[in-house]
Amino acid sequence: MKKLYLSVALLFAFASGAQAEGSMAGMNMDGMDMKEVQSSPAAHAEGTVKAIDAQGGKVTLMHGPVAALKWPAMTMGFKASAQQLEKFKVGDKVAFDFTMEGSTATIVDIRKE
Hints:
Blueprint: H1 2-15, H2 34-38, E1 43-53, E2 58-63, E3 74-79, H3 82-85, E4 93-101, E5 104-112
Antiparallel strand pairs: 1-2, 1-4, 2-3, 4-5
């Protein structure tokens, strides 16, 4: 039930025009194990590039479930360097590794699928 609630909440936020800002501030994290998030090593996911802000150091990715963190599929923002993002465009399918520091997700490695 928590996963359903989280999915509906995320869908509503996305549909109402909420913008990912490179962190998960303001997102409903019910059902997510935040102890694992706070101290997680790099996690792996696959997804699609939805928006790129190379100057601002942000990329928005719609990704599948992240088993290592017990996360459902969602769309969220990640911090990334301009160098990491220069070879990508909106719509690209990617595989990526990221770390969590508090509620901020930072890309460690990203590559086209």
